[in-house]
Automatic annotation (TrEMBL):
It comes from Actinomadura fulvescens. PANTHER family: F420H(2)-DEPENDENT QUINONE REDUCTASE RV1261C. This is Nitroreductase family deazaflavin-dependent oxidoreductase. It catalyses: oxidized coenzyme F420-(gamma-L-Glu)(n) + a quinol + H(+) = reduced coenzyme F420-(gamma-L-Glu)(n) + a quinone. InterPro entries: F420H2_quin_Rdtase, Split_barrel_FMN-bd. Coiled coil: none annotated.
Length: 146
């Protein structure tokens, strides 16, 4: 049995948990396109509990890599839990539609971050609004297949 076969705890946010369950039940037929943007399911290892945690997130693609924006609460002052979990354990599982696969996460920096930020805001301009109201630099996360 792989660590990814253990029980998974979905987001405590009710609307996100509902989205995750719809996505799972339909292999993304319902939930892959949400808000006009592509969505994936990300399962991380909880940095404190060691338990699997799952959430649904907007994503973009840069070649064969997947890109996430670490916004939380529309630009809130703290990083989202999924991002903090990836900092502690960069291996994660992704589901896109019906396909599940392992990824390794890293935070983009410098020019790569700037380029990927522009890419992501071209799909979801609200990220610029989130950054403007935030007291932190919102991270850009790159997921590469393991």
């Amino acid at each position: 049995m792989s660590r990814w076969d253990a029980e998974v705890i979905d987001s405590p946010e009710p609307s996100v948990a509902e989205h995750v369950q719809r996505y799972l039940a339909t292999d993304g037929e319902s939930g892959y396109m949400e808000g006009g943007v592509t969505n994936l399911l990300l399962t991380t290892v909880g940095r404190k509990s060691g338990r699997l945690r799952r959430t649904g997130l907007f994503f973009g693609q840069d070649g064969d890599r997947y890109v996430l924006i670490g916004s939380s609460f529309s630009g809130g002052p703290t990083h989202p839990s999924w991002y903090l979990n990836l900092l502690a354990e960069p291996e994660a599982q992704v589901q896109i539609k019906g396909e599940k696969f392992l990824v390794r996460a890293r935070t983009a920096e410098g020019e790569e971050r700037a380029r990927l930020w522009r890419l992501m805001t071209s799909w979801w301009p609200e990220y610029d609004t989130y950054q403007a109201r935030s007291t932190r630099e919102i991270p850009v996360v790159v997921l590469e297949r393991a």
